[in-house]
Amino acid sequence: MNRRLKKALPLLGALVFLMVGAALAVPTFNLHIQNIGEGGPQQITVPGGVANANVNWILDSNPDYVAGVTVSFDQNLDSGTTIYVKVYDSSENLIAQGSQTLNSALNSGTAVEIHFSSSVEIKNMDKVAVVLVGPQQ
User: Fold this and answer.
1) Residue 61: CB partners within 8 Å, gap ≥ 6?
2) In this predicted model, which residue has the larger pLDDT, 90 or 33?
3) C-alpha distances out from residue 126 to 19, 36, 117, Å
4) Total Cβ atoms within 10 A of residue 57
5) Residue whose C-alpha is closest to residue 30's, from 71, 84, 59
6) Nearest to 79 by CA among 47, 52, 111
7) Alpha-carbon gap, residue 92 to 127, rounded angstroms
């Protein structure tokens, strides 16, 4: 019995390693900008001319919860721009939010970390909204 267990242990370890790796795979969402209340590909002016953003989730110490996001954009953003991130459940209830005001210009592709006031359970998340507010003139 002990000999069989020693033979199976590396295989069991590899299986556990693969399952943990798959569980930690965090999806990325591509966002497309549009006017509030409008559907369709209408072109609008947003800070920095942003058309797309990448959102990656920051997992809490408990990997069933999300503590925040990292967001990067396809265009540069000016200093003073505020980035708001809001997460909604399937009933359109706001379940998490966070914001970050840029102290300096942000180059395209550079990620910004935004943490929520409290972590949110992954199974409750349905939609994410990213709102950019340009600097005060």
Assistant:
1) none
2) 90
3) 24, 18, 18
4) 20
5) 71
6) 47
7) 8
Q: Which structure tokens are listed for 68?
A: 């925040």
Q: Are strands 127-133 and 28-32 parallel, antiparallel or unpaired?
A: unpaired
Q: What is the 3-state secondary structure (H, E, C) of the chain?
A: CHHHHHHHHHHHHHHHHHHHHHHCCCCEEEEECCCCCCCCCCCCCCHHHCCEEEEEEEECCCCCEEEEEEEEECCCECCCCEEEEEEECCCCCEEEEEEEECCCCECCCCCEEEEEEEEEEHHHCCEEEEEEECCCC
Query: What is the per-residue pLDDT across 26-76, written as a single tens digit (0 to 9) for each?
Result: 555 555 555 555 544 444 445 556 778 888 899 999 988 999 999 998 888
* 106 contacts 77 by C-beta, under 8 angstroms: yes
